[in-house]
Amino acid sequence: MQLNKYQKEAKKTAIHPKRYKIIYPAIGLGNEAGEVLGKIKKWLRGDDGKGEMSKERKNALKGELGDVLWYLSTLATELDFSLDDIARSNLEKLRSRKERKLIKGDGDKR
Ligand SMILES: [Mg+2]
């Protein structure tokens, strides 16, 4: 599925008050990212036994990553950005950093 098509479909399921159109999906994005981390934390704690992550946990993570995508998409929509444009810009930034051997390091303006 193309990112912009996903974004268009996701928009149909967004229900939040217009006055919170930025903060609502931003909070959701942070919450869902936290759910991803929580599932990984429990794997690190040993909840799946020693070693590999369980299939069930991986599937749960897939669901949480989908939730992250939905909130990212919704926030992008409210900020009038397309997911295709965000993805393209991000790849251009990373390619440039790689060409200039600046993948490692700190700072948004590398
Ligand atoms: Mg979730």
Mean of pLDDT: 95
Q: Helix share of residues?
A: 55-70%
Class derived from helix and strand content: mainly alpha
How many strand segments?
0
* Rg, Å, rounded: 17 Å
Approximately how much beta-strand content do the residues carry?
A: under 5%
Tally of individual helices: 4
Helix-strand sequence = HHHH
Main sheet record: none
Which spans have pLDDT < 50 for at least 5 consecutive residues? none
Give the bound compounds.
Answer: magnesium ion
Distance between the termini: 31 Å
Under the CATH scheme, which class? Mainly Alpha
Query: What general outline do the C-alpha atoms trace?
Result: globular
CATH topology: Helix Hairpins
Q: Tell me the name of the CATH homologous superfamily.
A: MazG-like
Tell me what the CATH architecture is: Orthogonal Bundle
- Tell me the domain tally: 1
